[in-house]
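WARN no homologs supplied; continuing
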Amino acid sequence: MWLFLVFITLVFGVLAGLYAWTVYQKLEENKIGHPRVAELSEIIHKGAMAFLKKEYSWLAPFVGVVAILLVSALGLGAAFAFILGALCSATAGYIGMYVATNSNGRTTYAALAGMEADDGSAAGNALEVAFSGGSIVGMVVVGLGLAGLSVAYLFLNDVTALTAFGMGASSIALFARVGGGIYTKAADVGADLVGKVEAGIPEDDPRNPAVIADNVGDNVGDIAGMGADLFESYVNSILAAMAIGAVYTFTPGVDGSQLGLWGIGFPMFLAAWGVLASIIGCMMISQKAKCADSVRAVARKFMPSVMKRIDEGDAAFALRTGTFVAGGLMIAGTFVLSILFFFSNSISVFLSVTSGVLAGIIIGIVTEIYTSGDYRFVKAVAKSSDTGAATVILSGLSLGMMSTGIPVLLICLSTLISYYLAGMFGVAVAAVGMLSITGISLSVDAYGPIADNAGGIAEMSELPEGVRKITDHLDAIGNTTAAMGKGLAIGSAALTALALFVAYSQAAKIEKIDIMNPYVIVGLLIGGMLPFIFCSLSIDAVSKAAGSMIEEVRRQFREITGIMEGTGKPDYERCVAISTHAALTQMIVPGVMAIVVPVLVGFILGKEALGGLLGGAIVTGVMMALFMANSGGAWDNAKKYIEEGHFNGKGSPNHAAAVVGDTVGDPFKDTAGPALNILIKLMTVVALVLAPLF
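OK structure emitted
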């Protein structure tokens, strides 16, 4: 029976990979017919891949050392699962980076070619290419996640040892997120403050020495880092549900009522169905892929008005529709799977999963409302620029703090509903439900950085202004969808961490966490402190690296003759080197801290204190992640709102104040904030893997 479960999920993992390969073959047909665009795309590609190879060379010894320690402590099975999880995570990041940096220039040229043809196809063609690149990233992540889990389970046939797979994935993800975030924000802050504010030149102007590092950083942070982030979120949600499902009973105290293989198989099948739902959702968006023709033909028959808007090139509508279609299919498939797996308890399980899916969608919508320039909150932040940078920062901080309310209440509601219906197994599968359509969610997220890079290449290539307008429009939509994705990731992180925490309690044989126990209180306080220390280290790393970048850009403007006139060539390589060195050296301490501290607390203070640590970290980590992601997103879009011509527009004191706010928000939303999701799950999965030793 268990071989059947593994075979089915492995098939769906391979299916995701085959879809990604099919889309990649189609993407390769889009040749770049502009020499400068092709040259810049190749420079960015080489810079991004060089950084990733160097980062992995730094991480390889860490993976080796941890694997050796796991062999000595828990045996070969745990070490095998850890290495496989790390390899799958690294591979997902590598493929995602490779594809994204081969899609950016193609997106630029698609917009240019469409403009030159003057047939109204420019925006649609650019969206098609950018989303194709994003969908490859999304499908590779879920394909490797599902296939990797299936292979690990095939060899181990042991859910306890399998949790080390999630530990490997989380370890790589944390380093990738922190390292990528430091790289991209060091370049971005330096480019913005010196270029836009001090020199008064446009974003992505080729005269700015930090512009190549900035564009490389978009891929390092928002493609490789985000891909590894969602990879570990995806696999850990499945693993937590498997660990709880293996021993869960719907009727406590009844002999032989443990779910066993049914509890293990259900989350795997949920993820498998999510792959299919995501593929169909992607096909709804993709207009030129032949493999999508049949799906789109059916959709035109049943949803003619919807498909008409998609066919006309309404990018925001297309992306949202594809995501909602995938979500609807996921809910329908969950109903069928619940009946097949748990006939007498099918409604309880189905509603638990649905509560997670709906909570995730609503959290995404709430995040959009708080961070999109279409709504009053961001407009209020933009208006605060009338009185300077200080009030922009204060209003953004206030918005971020307030924005935690509704998402946290939704997480609480989903937790209580799913627990009431199906106990902790219900909570665990609710988290799987939130992340079940990661394939299309990440596709939509990854499309944004590709469009952003395409705009940078258009600016540096000095293409007609219309090309940049098209890519900026796609990028603005991508910023909104990315903010929604971050909200979803934070919500799922809370539920997944809670499920992992319960799995740890089961493995460590802890019946309750007594807050009257002083060791538990000490653990709570240490755990609550860790997200703050982690954020401090991450933001300080960005600050130091950005300071070095600012000094270097100023030096080049001052010393390189003719740079502002366009006759002198900036030293792009020096800026790339600054970001690379900062990212690699500064990512070590935060990453190691997440693994070492839980181990020390478990061995020195005991398993109950470690339980307290995990509880404290989950609470403050979720709050900080929501606060930082939404403040950063609001500052970013407030700046863009002013650049659209509101509140005196570009080059005004309002714009300068908003750029400062955006600069503060950069490490909030792209370095520390997203990495907190991984931090709380990595610490919890480390505790789960090592629970037998405490």
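The chain has 21 helices and no strands.
OK
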